[in-house]
Amino acid sequence: MAFQNNSGDIILDVVLTDEGRRRLAQGNNSFSVVKFALGDDEINYGLFDLAQTTALQDLSILQTPVLEAFTNNGSSMKSKLLSLTNQNLLYLPVLKLNTVPGDSRQTADSNYVVCVDKRTFDDSDLGTTNAIGYSTAGVRDGFMYGLDTDSLGGYIRIDAGIDSTDVTEIDESLIETQFMVEIDDRLGQIISKDGKAFPGFVSRDDDFIATYIFTKQPGDAFVRTPSQENPNDASTPVNGPIASTFEFKIRSSQDLRVSNFLFTRIGGTKNYTNAGGTNSSTKFIDSIVRVTGMTTGYAVDIPVRFAKI
After folding, report:
1. pLDDT tens digit string along 32-55?
2. Neighbours of 282 (CB within 10 A)
3. Is 153 left (phi over 0), alpha (psi -120 to 50) or beta?
4. What distance in Å separates the CA atoms of residue 182 and residue 203, rounded to the nearest whole number?
5. What pTM was computed for the model?
6. Angle 229-105-116 (CA atoms, 0-180°, nearest 5)?
């Protein structure tokens, strides 16, 4: 990863992604650019200087170094630009990780821990206390059971809304009814909050990043569109009306459950306090799960750790 020098002329730096190179190599006319996206991840709009003359107010922004083009599509454009027909909007919706409700809280390390098997999450049925998902007070904050089918352990919740008390209602055209989730398929898959719905991914790239698309349906287990009335401020980090919420949890992959290969190759070890109050040496792999609102393109990166005793 590097920056392009943007102190002079505007630079156009173009590379093919891994998928683009694969299609071009096939030589069967499958390589055809039909869509593109623009982003402004590097830009700090706070650099706009009203104290300067008109010609110089945006100079610092225009001269901000820009990231070079990435061949890895998973590393680029977290903040995508979009076109809006309504030119009178003062605020746009945001996505925020909601860690307020008890079961959607994060750990003290500000991440979520997926216990890949029952021995790691809760081994009380074996008469031992080495598991790290429970304490004497119950399920630990931020810990999920990677094989859950009975609403055990925590889950992840995303709220989509206007983060301002100046707005009481969200424009209908900006309500998020569809979410995209990207996750390393070697590590886990996306399932419903109760652990009973397994939607499956729609695509997986050469970097093992699986893409899931969730669209609001009647009685949907993932996406809800509550009333836009302002909820209790204590129940959400969004300081204004919420138009939709997205809830899910992560199921651990079979490879992590039956093998330590990936833990050895891309992971590490850490001591976690176990149910007995002592330490359990735990193998872990850190990863990122990205959730994107398909209407606004707003994305949230969620730190997730996969753990195994």
Report:
1. 888 777 778 788 888 999 999 988
2. 22
3. left
4. 10
5. 0.84
6. 130
